Each structure stands twice: as C-alpha cells, then as structure tokens.
C-alpha cells in the first residue's frame, strides 16, 4: 500500500483533460501531443526535480494526453501506433523531463509485455484492462537477483519477497511482477520465470519509498516488498494454467525481443535527455552567457566565441547522427513485431533477432557515450553561472549518469566486437 508521502497535485493539470479529450489521429499528431506534454513539463522541470515529490500529477498529465494508450489496440480505445513511434514519443517527453520520459517508456513496455510472452487470451485481456481504464503500469522486475519467489497454491500463484528496484510502482495502477517458480531452475533465460500483472493498491504491495538518488528523481524507482500476493494461474503470462508449465512462446526468439525492446527504451530517453540539455543550454548561452573578456577581439556576445560555436556544432552533429541511428533501430524492431506478431511469433529466427539486437546495442553504446559527453560538456559553453542550482542544468547529466549504470555498457561494446569480428549473435539473456 502507498504511504502518505509528499506528492505533486494532479489537480494542477486538470484543464488538460478537456484540452486533450480526443486521441491524436496521425503519427505526426501523436508526436505533436508528446511535444505539448514536454512543453508543459518544461515550465517547472528544474523545480520539480529539486522538490523530489512523488509524481502523481505528472502521471495524471500523461493520462490526460493519451500517450499511455499510444500502442494500444483501437478496439479498446488505443492509438494502435507502431513501436517506432512510441520510441520517438518517449524521446520528446524526455527532452523536457527525463524522469517522466522514463516513466512513459517503461509503461509502454510493461503494457505490451503480453504481446511477447502471453497467450492470445492474455493479450486481449491485458490490453482491454489497461487501455479501457487508461491505467498507468509500473514494474517490479529486476532479474539480476532472484529475490521474488513464487509458490503454487491450487489455481493461484503466491508471490513473496522483495525487489531492490521497481519503476513507477508507487504511482501506478497496475504492476508487473516477475519472479521464479519454486522447484524450477530460474536460469535467466526464461526457465521458471513468470510475469504477471497485478493491481498495485493492495496490502501485499509495500513500497519502501527509498528512492533518493542523484538523478531520475521522479521515477519512484525504490524498493518494494511483496507479501503473499495471490495471482490466478490464468494470469501467468505464457504459462498453461492446467499443466502449470510454460508454453513454447516463453522460450522463443520472439519472447527474447523483450530485452532489445527495453534496451531501446533506455537509449531513446538517454537521447531525449541529451537533446533537451542542448536545447536548454543553447537558450541559456544566447541570453545569459558572456564572452570571455581576455580572449582578444572585443567580442560583444558569447555567440561570437569560436570555442562556443565549435562545441555546439559538434554536439549537434553527434546528436543528429544518434537520432538517425535510434530511428533506424526502432524501425527495424517495429518491422519484426509487425511481421511476426500473433500466430507467427514462433517463426522469428535467431538471426533476425540477433541482427536487431546489435542495432539496439549500437544505440545503447552511442546514446550513453554521446549523452554523457553532451550533458557534461554543456557547462563549458554556458559558463560558471550556469552551475547555480536555480538554473537546473545539472539535472540532465544527473539523469543520464544515473540510468546508464543500469547495466555496464562495456558488455555491449564487447558484444558488438564479437559481432564484428566473429559474426556472433548475442545469446538472449536478461540484459541482451
């Protein structure tokens, strides 16, 4: 259950429920809606970051905007847009607020998890539940540690344990749980692992409210204790409720797209944060930064400084190239979803999966490198006064630095090296 913790007030965004009463009708209109959300968030992003309140209002804004429904089927009230557009929407929101861009990205992933590992019935029930109610979905999924155990009790599963990290759970309507069924190997490649969607607001879900990190402060990514949470066997995604055995889809190459899918979520909000930092810094430079008085030439403006022009140009070029790479990867992943969804999920080959995984790994490497470089480098072209807490320029670097430690990017570089030199595809795992 959620404790009484300081939260932002959803009422501040009530007017947008009427303003955005209908969903966008075209891909362009969806991206325009994402930019509108970003514009709203940008007005007080630095202040909200510093206050570090639970983002109840920000999630309400996402609900009002319709962005939570972007990927959902139209028959249940969704936008039915391709995954590639979802990635671009994440990027747009993250430009203004990295935390809320991350929450949107994780929601879009968790709300479509059944597409990857669920039965046809589970896919339909999940979409109808989430989209028709405009629910926000969080996730208590941290497979590095098998710290959530599952036991079987007749027609139900019982989850017990804890997760050191969960994302968005405190402000969610539904939470994805992932754990290991007792007496199974839980080998990290699907064996014994079960995903299930539960109602967040119940006595057995106890949040630690301990997310006090340097970045992504509004993501509610702290710990959660799960105490005797009961789930019908019929809600165990990709498992046969009668035999209590996993179906073939859970170990398929299509199910293994889950990891490239979430890694590309990461890359896109990294990229959005970096783009937002460049935009924010450029406005500051043109309005506040002063030329260096001892550099010669009696420059009248910071925009006359050679080194400032050179740095901005270099940052822009690298970010433009990174956007193109991210879009290409998103299109390739979307193509696999479209081609192999439904009854064709089992037809996806290891080669197809491996090729797209290496595109996504490339995005992860480049967005990490470029994102950290840009978000730290903008201070060199804004000046000493830009370090003032009230400016808020530091939040961009803090956000990227925090999440890029999710998994060591060195392993992605090694993975790509083996692909280049040995033509090896990565073996599907919880991080590849």
UniProtKB/TrEMBL annotation:
SUPFAM superfamilies xrefs: Acyl-CoA dehydrogenase C-terminal domain-like, Acyl-CoA dehydrogenase NM domain-like
Q: Superkingdom, according to UniProt?
A: Eukaryota
Give any Pfam family that matches. Acyl-CoA_dh_2
Q: Say if the entry is tagged with keyword Oxidoreductase.
A: yes
Q: Which UniProt keywords apply?
A: Oxidoreductase
What positions does the domain Acyl-CoA dehydrogenase C-terminal occupy? Answer: 264-406
The protein here is known as Acyl-CoA dehydrogenase/oxidase
List the lineage, top down. Eukaryota, Fungi, Dikarya, Ascomycota, Pezizomycotina
Q: Where is the Acyl-CoA dehydrogenase/oxidase N-terminal domain?
A: 33-126
InterPro entries for the chain? Acyl-CoA_DH_C, Acyl-CoA_Oxase/DH_mid-dom_sf, AcylCo_DH-like_C, AcylCoA_DH/ox_N, AcylCoA_DH/ox_N_sf, AcylCoA_DH/oxidase_NM_dom_sf
* Gene3D superfamilies found in the cross-reference section: Acyl-CoA dehydrogenase/oxidase, N-terminal domain (1.10.540.10), Butyryl-CoA Dehydrogenase, subunit A, domain 2 (2.40.110.10), Butyryl-CoA Dehydrogenase, subunit A, domain 3 (1.20.140.10)
